[in-house]
Amino acid sequence: MDATSIIDPTKSQLETVIRWLKKEHLNELHGSSGFYCNRSIIRKPYRHSQMKCLMTGHLIVGFAIFSLDTTYSAIDILEIRPAYRGNGYGRLFATQMINFLFSGGAPYVAVECSPITSEPFWRNLGFVDEEKKYSSWENPKLILRPKEDERGQGRFVMRNCLVL
Ligand SMILES: CC(C)(COP(=O)(O)OP(=O)(O)OC[C@H]1O[C@@H](n2cnc3c(N)ncnc32)[C@H](O)[C@@H]1OP(=O)(O)O)[C@@H](O)C(=O)NCCC(=O)NCCS
After folding, report:
1. Ligand 1 atom with the shortest distance to the CA of 120
2. Lower Cβ count inside 10 Å, N or C end of the chain?
3. Which residues line ligand 1 (CB under 6 A)?
């Protein structure tokens, strides 16, 4: 895996992400239409600085949409560009997003497994069932809480992965 960084995307980088989602949608890669149908949902958090991109050099390999306040926090969408999947980028990006949310005061991190095929990915990172197990779309809802000694320290240790 090449060296990575996480950035707040520019407008032009947002449009690059939307273009790749459109291409994915048109190609129906991996038997699903992806998040292109959520493009207006993605543009809104972008305007509110609730979007991050994972970069290798100048290339965007993934993006995430998140919610963060002191009573609720979630990774609403996280996607790795199809051609880059299976190389550890997803795990790295998710771990860094979790770290970012906990250092920003998140009490927990919630995810809705949509597509449902992502459920093992989140469970692998330590997420467990939320009290209400399914969303109204019948997707599994999972949650991750910080260990007491890691809360608010800006550092979160995931299984097999340390993020500083
Ligand atoms: C889910 C996703 C982010 C994973 O990214 P990735 O870069 O392929 O994942 P990684 O290479 O970092 O793999 C991390 C681990 O998760 C596992 N994994 C990845 N995708 C998985 C899937 N769909 N089902 C089960 N396990 C999966 C890998 O085997 C790996 O396990 P390991 O650490 O024990 O070896 C990526 O497949 C994706 O963008 N999917 C479409 C969008 C999506 O489902 N987003 C999540 C819901 S918002």
Report:
1. 25
2. C
3. 77-80, 85-91, 114-115, 117-118, 120-121, 124
Q: What is the pLDDT of residues 108-144, one digit of tens each?
A: 999 999 889 999 999 999 999 988 888 888 899 999 9
CA distance 66 to 42: 10
Which CATH number applies to 5-163: 3.40.630.30, 3.40.50.2000, 3.40.640.10, 3.10.20.80? 3.40.630.30
In a 3-state reduction of DSSP, which class is residue 118?
helix
Q: pLDDT for 95-111, tens place per residue?
A: 999 999 999 999 999 99
- Which helix (H) or strand (E) covers residue 15, if one does? helix 11-27
Q: Residue 159: helix, strand or coil by DSSP?
A: coil
User: Does pTM surpass 0.85?
Assistant: yes
Identity of the amino acid at 50: Q
